Amino acid sequence: MKSILAPAIGVAAGVVFALSVPSNVRAEPPADWSMIPTTMLTLFYPGQGGYDWLRSSEHKRAYAKVIAGDSCVSCHEGEEKEIGQLIVAGERLEPNPIEGKNPTVDLKMQIAYDAENAYFRFQWPTQMDRPGQMHDYMRFDGEKWEFYGGARSEDAVRSGGEPPVYEDRLTLMIDDGSVPGFAAQGCWLTCHTGMRDMPGEPTKEQIAANPILGPDGLNAGDIRKYLPLSRTAEEAEWDATKLAEQIAALKAEGKFVDLMQWRAARSAPVNMADDGYVLEYRLFDEGKNPFSWNVDRKTMTPKFMLDANKVGVKAITVNDIGDPSKPYAVIREENAVPYDPDAGWQEGDVLPGRMVSREDAAGSAADNGQVTSEWKDGVWTVVWTRKRNTGHPEDDKIIEDGKAYNFGFAVHDDNVTTRFHYVGFPVSIGFGTEGAIQATRLQ
Ligand code: HEC
Asked: According to CATH, what is the number of the domain 7-133+168-290+361-441?
């Protein structure tokens, strides 16, 4: 027996067993999830409706209330399908619709916790009839390796010249009440003009001129999520960054949101999710991610290839893309050997441009080490164990018993990135206290 449910839920045998559990037994997700209540959240396609648009007069009759801090659901409760439909079809806020894309995705969730961990079980249907677990592939063209395929939003894919190749993702944001406005407006606080695939993207030179984002700071090539509290101006423009010491002080006070992503290609093959946070940018936690580049940028060749002794092939081919029975990820400690330039490469050979490794992941960035997933009959199931106290309060939110947290959820489905995802209005989740969703206490 892996887990013990509280007597209130009625597993009598569990109560007896609980008395004899050795103290070193690792806490595990519920063995029987059917005992945990299910909540369904409808995530919708948001287009370019970010922070700035919501506060502009184009958000008719609503912008003053949004500025005043009213919650999205105070006006939009139950409207997710309607909003998603308008935007995905390009009638509002989407200048470049992707043909045939679903307007919403229904995310089912079950949440439990015990003394050590929080447990989440997520399920959602995918638009494609296969798992989206391929990402950043490289193709040998007879002479050299080149990146091949990409997100559905890219011109080369829209035109049919290259295949859609981009991983499915599930994102969690957690606020413990430290970030003003997050409870009411959630993810929409983090999405701004100037970000990738949003209006007003700055040039590389403009970014380089910013002390926080430029070469003297994060050395960013583009703008990603950030919190308004990291900016000086009311409008929180991307370049109105506070001083480095002010940002450090905010972080030390816990004024950031936790952000973590389960990634079908870059973390799932080693049963992990990544771990990051949002403050002045979307950043990874201290340490090392489970994924890295499998590309030597000097020679533009892969660093590792598949181990034919283990998986039968040294690479896949263009025709294997989308075939879930083929190997799709290079896992350093499991199926990889160093790249051999003389291995007889043929035009159309394909290797992942990313490498995944559980062994190499380290530090706070490797906190999500117990995340299992399965795609079956058109549905992803992800079971996510998160330590309530990761030991890294400097870039994580610690989940305390007796407290509610504001969660934001997003799903990237069917070969997309950036704004082409689905996002839900924020929900509070209570651990041993009230919330829109109440986590079930185990043991
Ligand atoms: C005071 C009520 C109110 C609040 C609060 C509010 N909205 Fe709206 N929102 C509206 C109205 C009314 C419209 C439709 C305007 C129109 O018909 O052109 C709208 C339109 C939208 C649209 C465009 C799609 C559509 O249906 O026309 C999006 C997206 C949207 N709101 C998102 C949000 C988000 C996200 C929040 C929270 C940050 C939010 N709204 C807060 C009232 C509100």
From this structure: 2.60.40.1190
